[in-house]
Amino acid sequence: MGTQIPNIEDTRELLKKNQIGIIGVGETEQGKIPGKSSFHFLSEASKIAIEDAGLNKSDVDGIITAFSLVEETFMHCTTFADYIGINPKYFESVAIGGATAVWMTAAAAMAINSGQAEVVLCVRGDNTLSGISSTGMIALIREMCHGEFEYPFGLTTPGGYALMAQRYLHESKGTREHLASVAVTMRQHAQLKENAMNKDDLTMDDVMGARLLASPLTKFDCSIISDGGAAFIVTTAAKAKELGLKRDPIYLHGMGQGFSHQYLTSCEDLDQIYGAIQKSGDKAFKTAGMTNQDVDITFLYDCFTITTLLELEGLGIVPKGHAGAAALEGRLHKDADIPLNTNGGLLSQAHLGAMHHVVEAVLQLRGEAGERQVKDPNVALVHGNGGIVSAHSTILLGNEPLS
Amino acid sequence: MSEEKVEYAKPLPDFRPETKPFWDGTKEHKLLLPKCKETGKVFFYPRAISPFPNSTNMDFDWVESSGKGKVWTYSVHYMGPTKAYKGETYVVAMIELDDGVKMMSNVVDCDPESVTIGMEVEVVFEDATDEVTFAKFKPVQ
Known about the structure:
The complex is a heterodimer. By secondary structure, chain A is of the alpha/beta class. Chain A has one domain (8-131, 225-398): Thiolase/Chalcone synthase (Peroxisomal Thiolase, Chain A, domain 1, 3-Layer(aba) Sandwich). Chain A has helices at 8-18, 38-53, 76-84, 100-113, 128-131, 134-143, 157-172, 176-190, 204-209, 237-242, 270-288, 305-314, 323-328, 345-349, 355-366; strands at residues 20-27, 62-65, 90-93, 120-127, 212-214, 217-218, 227-236, 250-259, 297-299, 379-386, 391-398. By secondary structure, chain B is mainly β. Chain B has one domain.
């Protein structure tokens, strides 16, 4: 017998056999919260998720963290393991920018599938708003672009996305209203989310009348900066049962990554970006045995308004060039046909990568999203984007085990 | 008293040694592009290894660009990354050079709000310090 090269079908079989999913979620308060360190938020979010799952801290045998923009550490995951008092069998720091949170779920599943751990805590927290210095912020902007061939021309982070937005509007014959409507819908959702940072009314006129930061983007097209933490815990249905947990997991049905470029200089055209987004989605759909028609609720990385439009088109949810019009028609509202980021997203709830997107997807699939609840969703898609539409990760979650 | 020189306060490039020929070129007001000796193709940004599929070549020729191209996309920046940009409105753009590569730069010598996608531009050199000269672009008249 010859051996076979492992493929997506093997992942599908492992996810089916092991029934891996998210058993506990936690979010701290979000906003401007001075007086709490990055490690305080990590601890608080972990505590809430552990209690939500009904676990003991000692049941956790795997830790996946990300990074801090304020308190840089060389080994983030083990620094936190030491801090919280868990001796993990598996530990990993995922550091792929905004693609991190979504990929933590996948990394946890891979660790579990290979027998490295059974109960994996995925957590991120940071005091970005209160703790980052102006030199730290400048270093971050510099980090987002090429230090030699881009940054010296005065490129900012909103500017990088603005370059893509300008090109997108040119190719799709779109308008600034298309971008603005994404910000307005996210604000409407944030008004229903208890811990959202920005809840003031926001109208189209407010966005259209705001000063441009980097054309065609205003401050309302940019995500907020916030303090806070969020966590989720990944395990198997069998382990949840063995531990006598009160509810079933929300199951992981598929995952995938796609890469376009690190620096905009290496981006040939918008199709390169669409292709990377599509690749991350295709792998997730193939693993799940689904198509985008099966998705009931969508969570897309909304670091800037433009990002969501590129993602909607890259994932094939809306045809190319039509996402702006879809947004303006109100189709991204929680009660419309493409309910998007019911938590208010990075634009209005809080910015902790896609951590809150994963948490909200779980709450929606449990039917515990309160006023924001979408009617009976069975499948959620969560997407994360790192860099300047550079690195993409997608997962599919469902309230039934993969069959 | 000797003549006082205004110090350049904006960010300067983080040099990597392998890009020296590029910056030596701009200092002489030449826009040089690395050309892979294996594939015969030019690329940007300069680096130590060929970025083309199937090539691990690390040996390059440096060829002079025509310095002409078009604006592929742009953004008028009303706020810069550091204090040195305070009060300035400037254009960051991706320029598609006729040589077939894209590079990021500024479009200068024009009203920032007059820049459009597809605008024809040509290189101009801006001596920032004794060591650093930037290749920038201006609209073709």
